[in-house]
From TrEMBL:
This is DNA 3'-5' helicase. Residues 1-88 form the Helicase ATP-binding domain. One of its GO terms (cellular component) is cytoplasm. The keyword Cytoplasm does not apply. It comes from the Eukaryota. Transmembrane segments: none annotated. Residues 412-494 are annotated as: Disordered. Belongs to the helicase family. RecQ subfamily. Pfam families: DEAD (PF00270), Helicase_C (PF00271). One of its GO terms (molecular function) is nucleic acid binding. Residues 412-424 have a biased composition (Polar residues). GO terms for biological process: double-strand break repair via homologous recombination.
Length: 494
């Protein structure tokens, strides 16, 4: 039943007073709970009063709130509105839609957006175009009818003021294919599960990131087809974008848009092999010149939020670090994780420390932290499969590891200088050697030729006369043996 039925003062109070019905009440389930925040403070105030049922429900009857899109701020608002306790059990599932490609197109005027839609997306594939303003929707519809007068029956509006019969007829024709382009407000939001919608366009920024994901998620409800979700924005004219930081990050990021959504909703990092991801990843893929590379896993060469990735960050080389240095890096990363978790837990209890970075990811980073010498290196290590839990978190982690690597590099440079031996400084002085070694090593005793000596003449006799002369000289130089006797001092004896 709708929240308005719950507030019906004529019929519903009687139901709560029936003992038989109250005894069979097992739970109160609120589906699409994000509407409590999105609609409860605007055009459907009954959503904000659902929490009043706690005063009427029997004791012990649980409340269950379900939604596919509950970022931390909206989750906190829903918990407050439904009077959940802080220890309420929260079950999270991955809400990523891998078969939808995301794209943001910006134009300075509304007419520019319309002309771009006509140029690129009016191929009459099954399309929903969402508007927040019914007046703006009517103007765009008239413009499209004028441009495609021969197919104007395929382009219709859908909004809450239509009669129930008109709504059913248009939805039925849209499902069957007679209507190809449906211009709609939120009336074609929840419950519009048409499996073969190829394209969803959001005209200007919606109220928050949750509404955007809900609407773009109407594309490709069948997992067998590829969908396309496009957001048209008018720079400087989107107040909602400025109020929701996740929506602003989705529009202005220079990184992967899917990773921004995963970070906003706490999804695990995505890795879409050979699939369409977003317009930014397509540009990176095109610049890489290869068709086999995945848009998300190629983010190592992209421009990151803070500064352009340098060559060393895009292609980091392994830098050896000791076990002691890795242990110190592990402690610094854990300290950073605790600080980031403290920031997130202040917003909502939905986060755990693993939501910031789990231990497996930390182990990979510790083993390769030596390559983090500049900003963007972490994105290269994980090839875009890890995104900071909060804008700025990855930047702070890189600053910590860059400073630690600088400390290690400085220490290694000092030790290297000490190990370099200078012979003139470390030669043992001559005076410290023994006396006999001093004489041998004395400079006066050590004379080395300054140049190569001239070739000495051969001493071998070359003629008979020279041989005879050499023999005579040898006989005259024969050694004479003299025997000395103590009794005949000074006399020779033979």
């Amino acid at each position: 039943m709708t929240p308005e039925m719950v507030k019906d003062r004529e019929r519903f109070p009687k139901l709560w007073n029936m003992d038989g019905w109250r005894s069979r009440l097992l739970a109160i389930v609120i589906d699409e709970a994000h509407c409590i925040h999105s609609w409860g403070n605007s055009f459907r105030n009954a959503y904000s009063q659902i929490g009043d049922l706690r005063a009427k429900a029997p004791p012990g009857v649980p409340f269950i709130a379900m939604s596919a899109t509950l970022p931390p701020n909206i989750l906190h608002a829903v918990k407050t509105s439904l009077y959940f306790k802080n220890d309420v059990i929260i079950v999270k599932a991955d809400c990523d839609r891998p078969n939808i490609k995301y794209e943001v197109r910006q134009f300075p005027t509304r007419k520019g957006c319309i002309l771009d839609i006509i140029k690129h997306f009016m191929d009459f594939a099954k399309t929903i175009i969402y508007f927040d303003d019914i007046t703006e929707m009517s103007k765009v519809c008239r413009y499209l009818h004028k441009e495609f007068s021969h197919k104007r029956r395929m382009i219709v509006r859908y909004f809450s003021d239509l009669s129930a019969d008109a709504k059913r007829k248009r939805i039925r024709e849209f499902k069957e294919g007679g209507i190809r382009v449906l211009l709609s407000t939120e009336a074609a939001g929840m419950g519009c599960d048409i499996p073969d919608v190829v394209r969803v366009i959001q005209f200007k920024c919606p109220e928050n990131i949750s509404t955007l994901v809900q609407r773009l998620g109407r594309a490709a409800r069948s997992p067998s087809i590829q969908g396309h979700g496009i957001l048209y924005t008018l720079p400087g004219k989107n107040q909602h974008q400025k109020q929701d930081r996740h929506l602003d990050a989705f529009v202005t990021t220079t990184e992967c848009r899917r990773q921004v959504l995963n970070s906003a909703f706490g999804n695990p990092p995505a890795s879409l092999e050979n699939m369409k991801c977003c317009d930014i990843c397509d540009k990176i893929k095109g610049s890489s010149g290869t068709e086999s590379s995945l848009t998300v896993s190629n983010v190592a060469s992209r421009i990151v939020r803070w500064k352009q990735v340098s060559i060393s960050a895009a292609h980091p080389k392994h830098v050896h670090r000791t076990k002691e240095q890795q242990q110190e890096a592990n402690e610094r990363i854990l300290k950073w994780r605790n600080e980031e978790w403290a920031r997130l837990i202040a917003q909502s209890e939905i986060y755990s420390k693993d939501s910031v970075m789990n231990m497996k990811t930390i182990a990979i980073l510790v083993a390769k932290f030596g390559t983090v010498q500049c900003h963007g290196a972490i994105a290269s290590i994980f090839e875009g499969r890890w995104q900071e839990s909060e804008p700025g978190g990855q930047h702070r982690l890189e600053e910590i590891l860059i400073r630690y690597n600088e400390e290690i590099n400085s220490s290694n440079a000092v030790n290297s200088n000490k190990e370099q031996v200078n012979p003139q400084q470390h030669e043992e002085p001559l005076s410290s050697r023994p006396q006999d070694q001093q004489e041998i090593l004395s400079p006066d005793r050590l004379r080395f030729p300054q140049s190569e000596p001239a070739e000495l003449p051969s001493l071998r006799p070359s003629s008979p006369a020279q041989k005879k002369k050499a023999l005579k000289r040898a006989k005259s130089n024969d050694m004479k043996f003299v025997h000395y006797s103590p009794n005949k001092r000074g006399k020779n004896s033979k």
